[in-house]
Amino acid sequence: MLKSVLRNSGSSNISRISRTNILKNVGAHPFVYYSTTRKTSPLEQTKNISSNEFEFSTKGAPIVRGKNSTATEYTLPKWKEALGEYVIKTFGLDMDKIRAGPVAGSYYYSICKEQGLQYENEPLSESAKFFYEELKLPRTFSQWFQITALHEWMLFVRMRAMPFKYGRNYQQKLVDKTFNDIEMRLFDEMNIHSGRIVDQYSKDFNSQLKGAVFAYDVGFYTDDATLATAVWRNLFGGRKNIDYSHLDAVVKYIRSQLYVMSRMSDREFALGKFKFVPAKEKINKLTSAEEKEMKEKIIKKYEELDKSGLLLPSDRSNLSYDN
Amino acid sequence: MSSYQVVREGAKQVIKLLEKFPEERFKYLVSFKATQLERFSRIAGLPISQKSSSEIANNKASIDEIKDIVNRTSGPLGLQKEMLKKMQAAIPHDQFSEASMKDQINALSNLVGNKYKNYYEVGNKLYNPAGNPEYYQRIIDDIQGKKKENILAGLRTVFMGR
């Protein structure tokens, strides 16, 4: 985990190069947390709306990719790697705690960020198309923030189910990275030169994040209708002429992502094995037999890994893999 | 039945579904239920309820008035004219066909019927999360006014995080 550090995790994932050749034999095959059916559109039922009714142009707001937002990959030299492993082993460092930085701060933030990321002179990504073209959200910076906040909240829900000490740390790292990055983007991409104004925006985004998390929490725990109103207030900015099928699609999206997360064990989630399922894919529930089989496979895999002694000190974890 | 009448009937159905939405326990700046009831009452040709119309009267400036002010000034509130046009174009127009009204009803009944919460069941793992089992219940109890917490419980949350 320590081996490769990704600066400015704009779009690419953390690449893991640590002894994959050894782990391959132990059984590193992909697990299925869900099965999907690919549909042409999550808003299939809205297809029969004649196009001019909800029409609007998605000509973008002038956000241009800044020089700091191009991803560059950096790999630690071998001797530093070896030194790191030695230090972890000798001092018995708690890797679950340390891993919060690279996993939650870097990887999980990057997948939240790229969902709604858009630049004027670049084509929209698949996930951005869902938000800006199908849900017809305006292509602005604050809209990007709302989309990111929604995805971060979904991760928070899962992180709360980790042991308190670790889950809290993961949440903290995710939030820290978010505001660091927002600050960087405001200077670099929105061309704001005044630190005071950037501070003001950051405070504003902070209270927006708190409000969104609170509202989504209430909606998540109570019912779909309350969750829909929370989505309406935050993601859709409380606009009056809302198309309800959009709300329906977002609520479905949220619930299905949380379903996928709920099937993952703490160990896997903490190692950064989760990624958001594209909105285009309809998530089917696992049957109880499939679920049982999946769990057994995961337990077997991690039991073997833990026993094998092949894991590097930096890859060890005490989190449970059977929940 | 003409399509106009179908849309009106549809709007009435939407209103029925909207009325099933739970009352918001927490006071927000805008209420989904109130604004949407008003919107569809207009389409259905029903009188707008007393409460929502009085709320509008209390507002100091309506959105139309603000738009008017913004349009009249030459450099409105730091926004460029082009941006304003974009923002206006981005707001979908409120015209419903029979088919689109049907979609609205479908979507609303999914939401009111708790379709997705029941289908994508996440279980106690997420509703009573291991790290903080009482998390959601405390929030709900507080906004419903069932159980007010004293200052010690509050301080504990501030310092311990749960």
Automatic annotation (TrEMBL), chain A:
Pfam families: Ubiq_cyt_C_chap (PF03981). GO terms for cellular component: mitochondrion. It comes from the Eukaryota. One of its GO terms (biological process) is mitochondrial respiratory chain complex III assembly. Residues 133-276 form the Ubiquinol-cytochrome c chaperone domain. Belongs to the CBP3 family. This is Similar to Saccharomyces cerevisiae YPL215W CBP3 Mitochondrial protein required for assembly of cytochrome bc1 complex. It comes from Maudiozyma saulgeensis.
From TrEMBL, chain B:
It comes from the Eukaryota. Signal peptide: none annotated. One of its GO terms (cellular component) is Cbp3p-Cbp6 complex. GO terms for biological process: mitochondrial respiratory chain complex III assembly. One of its GO terms (molecular function) is ribosome binding. Pfam families: UQCC2_CBP6. This is Similar to Saccharomyces cerevisiae YBR120C CBP6 Mitochondrial protein required for translation of the COB mRNA. The lineage of its organism: Eukaryota, Fungi, Dikarya, Ascomycota, Saccharomycotina.
